[in-house]
Specification:
Low-confidence stretches: none
Helix content: 25-40%
Oligomer: single chain
Largest sheet: 5 strands, antiparallel
Mean pLDDT: 86
Number of domains: 2
Radius of gyration: 25 Å
Order of helices and strands: HHEEEEEHH
Shape: globular
Strand order of the largest sheet: 1-2-3-4-5
Number of helices: 4
Number of strands: 5
């Protein structure tokens, strides 16, 4: 049987297609294995850098990426990264989110065991450039206004932007964005307070 007549047989196309699929999946598996460790290491470095941005130097002598506890918040799992010094939990680092003007605003915060914020950063948002993006620390220092705050400072009625009777500034033309961040940080502090014992163990 010559190649031309073999090619006309009904099983030729599926056989050829299957061979290419097998080769392609093998190549993808090899590439995934070859780059998997490098990708995981890069992701871990990015996460560590982000967490270190909200955690003041000297508060952790442990690898807080490996010291975690998962807790439930409104049906979603929140991973708490625990910073320890001399074996004692000194701070909790975690993400919270609230709906902004154009989508969810993801906030990373560090809280000490007394319930005070050590640092807050916006990790991800879809807010309007030039207006709502002032929540980014590289564009405006506004986000640093949460440093050292707690549920008692300011009082419960003042955890809001000035337009709503609170102590936090809003941006001209973009009140919804800072309002969402204030709500996220307050919610994060309430979440921490409700789970302080579990986090500190």
């Amino acid at each position: 049987m010559d190649f031309a007549s073999f090619r006309e047989k009904i099983g030729y196309q599926p056989l050829l297609l299957g061979s290419f699929a097998l080769l392609a999946s093998g190549a993808l598996a090899w590439a995934s294995n070859a780059t998997g460790e490098a990708i995981a290491a890069a992701e871990a470095k990015d996460l560590r850098d982000s967490l270190s941005e909200v955690l003041p130097a000297g508060l952790a002598d442990n690898d807080f990426l490996k010291d975690t506890v998962d807790l439930d918040r409104d049906g979603k799992t929140v991973t708490i990264y625990r910073a320890r010094r001399a074996g004692q939990v000194s701070a909790a680092l975690f993400k919270v989110a609230e709906r902004g003007y154009a989508g969810d605003i993801q906030v990373l915060m560090a809280v000490d065991m007394d319930g005070r914020t050590l640092g807050v950063r916006v990790l991800k948002h879809s807010e309007t450039p030039g207006l709502g993006d002032k929540v980014e620390v590289r564009k405006d220092p506004w986000i640093r206004g949460f440093d050292g705050r707690s549920l008692g400072d300011p009082g419960p009625d003042q955890w809001a932007v000035r337009k709503d009777g609170g102590v936090f500034d809003q941006f001209a033309g973009a009140t919804i964005t800072p309002r969402a961040v204030v709500k996220a940080v307050r919610g994060g502090l309430e979440f921490f307070a409700a789970h302080r014992a579990e986090i500190g163990s």
